[in-house]
Amino acid sequence: MRVVEVPQYFDDKGLDGLAQGLAPWPPDSRVLFDARATKWASPFGFTALLAASQALQALGAELPRLALPESDDVRNYWAKAGFFRHAATLFELHGKVPRRQPDEASDVLLPITPVRASEDVHAVVGRIQESAARILTNELHLEARATMRFSMALSEACQNVVEHAGTGGWVAVHAYNWRKRLGRRVVVIAVSDAGIGFRASLEPAEAKKHGDRWGDGAALEAALIHNVSRFRDPGRGQGLAAIKRFVVSWQGKISIRSGTARCSIVPAWDNDKALSEDLAFFPGSQLQIVIPAQEPAAG
Amino acid sequence: MILTIHLDDVLRDTLSVPSRDLVTRPTGAAVRSRIQDAIAATAAPTTRLDFGEVGLIDFSCADEVVAKLLLDTAGDHYVVLSNLDESQAEAIEYVLDRQDLTVAAIPRVGDPCVLGRTTPELVAVFRAVLATGSGNAIRLAAHLDWSVDRTADALQSLALRRLVVAAAGTFSPLPFQ
Fold this sequence. Notes:
heterodimer, A: alpha/beta, 4-stranded parallel sheet, 13 strands, B: alpha/beta, Transcription Regulator spoIIAA, Arc Repressor Mutant, subunit A, two-stranded antiparallel ribbon, 7 helices, elongated
């Protein structure tokens, strides 16, 4: 049994630690994800954890175990986020699962939702608009048209899973106070899948151009920085480019982790590296968009 | 004569789940296919796509419905968009601009306009044709206070982009109603 500790604060940075615990991939024995000490998980953490189990099962591994957080409050939040609804079929759960239903009328703008097909994207976009309008304009002080732009970005992010992953994925959208890293309220979109990843998706069209430099990092740079698509159609590659444009205009952050690399468009308020390579391998692709509350104009 | 296609109706017929939103490439491709069938079956030289009851359109769907439709539609057929809201116009403008395409549009609020790759000259001539009605380059040059050659070049560009109807040296606005 491989015991993999789920970080106390399980967000995008925490995933690197989880991936280290899974190395070398694939694990050679049954995995126990130990979340007993976990105090908090972001949408990124939730969706990545589901994707990890999905990837293990795709490899024929035994159903992983998940030891649930000891804290009642934390387990309640996981239930509110809709985690247990999906985890029940992806893990052998150890611990008390709250009966609480996923919450769609609070800071959980979109509970964890599977994305497998085009119809799922329609459902996600249809559900998000009212709650997004409430949070984005009232709490984050974004312009009124931001709601539609946000929904467009969410739609494109989900479509990446359907079109490129070769398997299903997960999406979640939460609003919360990001005290430690920013000191402001944020809305976070997380989309994670256990698919083939950016490197494999772009390899047929891009690998030769990059020669020895080709790898997860180069693939992410090609997609996120240079808007490269695996399709030759000139209308392709616009989704990520458009997301990027919106996120930058809101002083937000977009980052994608795939395989052993993470590539980010880093705003002034964050000190992340634009490209991190040689990370521990994690299957599929994980996209995160952080949109911060807008600061009042100076003067 | 004009063929009006209400995109909310097409969306309803296309999807198995109810949705007001034009999102995803498969949905866009299916909607475009139905539009193309309707165009093939009509004698009308102009098709108007009505976005009035549509909610969101994302970039992928805008590419499938509008950009690919413009690329695939024969040169003697005209396409105009109507009842666009601000976000719909923004998505369509973005995907058309990246592919050097243009389309005439009537927003929900405001005058007819050109979406996609434009120049100030193209926009000025488009507006002048709308304001003055059918005419030749000499008449329009006088209206714009431009040289005839400059006006004729701009009108040819508009005609190539199917933003005006050109016939025997006369340029007419597209029928928006």
